[in-house]
Design a protein that fits this description.
The protein has helices spanning 5-27, 36-62, 68-91, 97-119, 128-150, 156-189. It is mainly alpha-helical. Helix 1 (5-27) packs antiparallel against helix 2 (36-62) and helix 5 (128-150) runs antiparallel to helix 6 (156-189).
C-alpha cells in the first residue's frame, strides 16, 4: 500500500509519542526534581504531534485522500498520544486516575465497536463528539505543559487546581461522547 501524506502525518504522530513520553517522564512536576525545560520540550513535542492531527484530517478531506488505514490509524494515534499524556498527568498528581480510567473505558468500548464493524467490512469514522473530546483533551494537555514550562515552585498548587478542573471536564465530555458513539453504532454490532 502506498502511503499518502495524511497517513504519513498520522505515522509521524505515532513516532513522536515515545519522545514525548521521555520528556514527560523527566518533567516531574510538583517534586523537588521538577524540570521546566523538560516540561517545555514535552509540550512542544505534544504540540507538534497535535498539529499533525489537525493537518492529516484537513489534507485527507480537501484532496480526497481518505483511506481505511487513515480511518483506523488516525484515532489510534490520537489515543496513543493523549493516553500517554494523561498517564503522566496522573503520575504528576494533576489528573485523577478516575479520569484516566473513564477515558480508557470509552476508548475500549469504541475500539470494540470498530472491531466488530471491521469484521463486517464496515469502517466507522469518528463522529463530531469524538472530535470535541480529542480537542478538549489535547487543549488541556497543551495547557498543562505550557503552564509547567512557566511555573515556579510556588505555582504548583494553582496549576494543579486548573488542570484538575479541566481533566474533570475532559472526563464528562469523554463519557458523553462514548455514550453517543455506542448509541449511534449499536446496530453495527447486533
Amino acid at each position: 500500500m502506498k502511503m499518502n501524506l495524511p497517513n504519513k502525518l498520522t505515522l509521524l504522530r505515532c513516532a513522536l509519542v515515545p519522545f514525548f513520553m521521555v520528556f514527560a517522564a523527566m518533567t516531574k512536576f510538583g517534586t523537588q526534581d521538577f524540570n521546566q525545560i523538560f516540561g517545555l520540550v514535552a509540550g512542544i513535542i505534544f504540540a507538534l504531534a497535535s498539529i499533525t492531527d489537525l493537518l492529516d484530517g484537513k489534507i485527507a478531506r480537501k484532496y480526497h485522500l481518505e483511506t481505511d488505514f487513515g480511518r483506523f490509524a488516525d484515532p489510534l494515534a490520537d489515543k496513543m498520544l493523549t493516553t500517554a499524556a494523561l498517564i503522566y498527568m496522573v503520575v504528576d498528581g494533576v489528573c485523577s486516575p478516575i479520569v484516566l480510567a473513564l477515558t480508557l473505558f470509552r476508548e475500549f468500548a469504541v475500539a470494540g465497536i470498530r472491531m466488530v464493524a471491521a469484521s463486517k467490512s464496515k469502517v466507522i469514522a469518528a463522529n463530531m463528539w469524538g472530535k470535541v473530546k480529542t480537542v478538549l483533551q489535547m487543549s488541556t494537555i497543551l495547557l498543562y505543559y505550557g503552564l509547567t514550562a512557566i511555573a515556579r515552585g510556588s505555582d504548583a498548587m494553582a496549576v494543579s487546581l486548573i488542570i484538575q478542573a479541566l481533566c474533570w471536564a475532559v472526563a464528562v465530555v469523554t463519557v458523553v461522547s462514548g455514550v453517543i458513539y455506542v448509541k449511534d453504532n449499536i446496530e453495527v454490532i447486533k
